[in-house]
Hints:
Blueprint: E1 3-8, H1 16-31, E2 35-40, H2 46-57, H3 63-87, E3 92-95, E4 102-104, E5 113-116, H4 119-126, E6 130-134, E7 137-139, E8 146-148, H5 154-164, E9 169-174, E10 195-197, H6 198-206, H7 214-223, E11 227-231, E12 239-242, E13 264-268, E14 271-280, H8 285-295, E15 303-305, E16 314-322, H9 323-335, H10 337-340, E17 344-348, E18 351-357, H11 367-377, E19 384-388, E20 391-397, H12 401-411
Parallel strand pairs: 1-2, 1-9, 2-6, 3-6, 9-11, 10-12
Antiparallel strand pairs: 4-5, 7-8, 11-12, 13-18, 14-16, 14-17, 15-16, 18-20, 19-20
This protein binds adenosine-5'-diphosphate, aspartic acid and magnesium ion (MG).
Amino acid sequence: MALIVQKYGGSSVADAESIKRVAKRIVDTRRAGHDVVVAVSAMGDTTDELLELAHEVAPLPAPRELDMLLSSGERISMALLAMTIHSMGFEARSFTGSQAGMITDSHHGKARIVDVTPIRLREALDEGAIVIVAGFQGFNRDTRDITTLGRGGSDTTAVALAAALKADVCEIYSDVDGIYTADPRVIPRAQKLDHISSEEMLELAANGAKVLYIRAVEYARRHGVIIHARSTFSSSEGTYVLGTGMKNPRESEGAVMEEPIVAGVATDVTQAKITVAGVPDVPGKAAEIFKIVSKAGANVDMIVQNVSAATTGRTDISFTVPKADASTTLKALAAEQTEVGFENLLHDDQIGKLSVVGAGMRTHSGVSSILFQALSASGINIEMISTSEIRISVVLRGTDLADAARSVHAAYGLDSEIEAIVHAGTGR
Ligand code: ADP
Ligand code: ASP
Ligand code: MG
């Protein structure tokens, strides 16, 4: 008998029919003799709809109240799921994040889990119940307020529960059959991976692949939790995310698998580009600019500085930040224009970022040249480039992103013979 943690995303519990399908899967796992703990997301696009509602009543909703509001989405689905399981003749009990012992810091909207004390969950399991926990939410001990873990945070709830309860596996169910070499909504020829290293998954998640939430992958790596990403809508095996030294549960003893050089391609349209034009080309200006940006709370991703024009002694500095942070960043910079001495500020939210990720880049040469050749053959212009040890990213026009991703995916030999299946969801 194993202890299995399962997480069902919004598209898996979008309506009554879907909730019944999920309940049946949970009951089947229970029937097979396992203890089951479930983390559940809000139904369908509920979180987005609640957010829109909040912004209709207040331009800048108070963070504490926003967390109260958003956490209610998961309460609805947890109760409905527990009721459904009950009606199937099984004992199920639902718990909010705070009842489940999800203790976080006090950072509303992006709280981090600092402790998990699943006492009530243990009791319920000991009494033979199936445990359902509202994902995405926690509780701060100092403020005694409800917090949320950031968009996609139910994945983290599941992984944290798996770690605290020492579960055998953490199954993350969504509307695709596993982790693919690219988002199958963008590249229908993407291939499902049997497994992926957690360092590669972290890079993919950080660069737009929302199939797993980056903090969940991080948490799993730190606590040695095996993630199995799979689909609610089919019974096929999905993809295992494995940290260093973790054994692939599917691999037979002694079998060594040849790892591909490139694990996958990720696309991201959530960044905007800001250009500070006409910056005096003297020491200290970059420091001044990025101090202002960091004070504004924006997370800078890519940076490019042009060669300064000899006649003017001025240069342009461009960088990318999340679209959501762009306007505060621009305001903060504009307020210091005279101080810094730049000429102009430009804002561009029509960019797209394409990233190629693979641990094999460490030991193979020529990986970047394939990317650049593929883009050049498709006549696509590159605006910015950045690299890490296992990733190359380029910024392009947003309208070129899908074409670019398809040609790069093909150039690395990642295209599959058959089209990937996306079962449900709006991809929102
Ligand atoms: P859930 O609501 O269940 O949490 P998400 O919408 O967060 O599900 O994540 C699943 C979606 O992630 C898929 O529908 C797919 O469009 C997208 N996705 C992005 N990159 C990938 C990838 N590499 N492999 C699989 N799915 C991906
Ligand atoms: N419901 C939350 C969201 O939409 C959390 C989650 O689904 O993981 O972001
Ligand atoms: Mg998700």
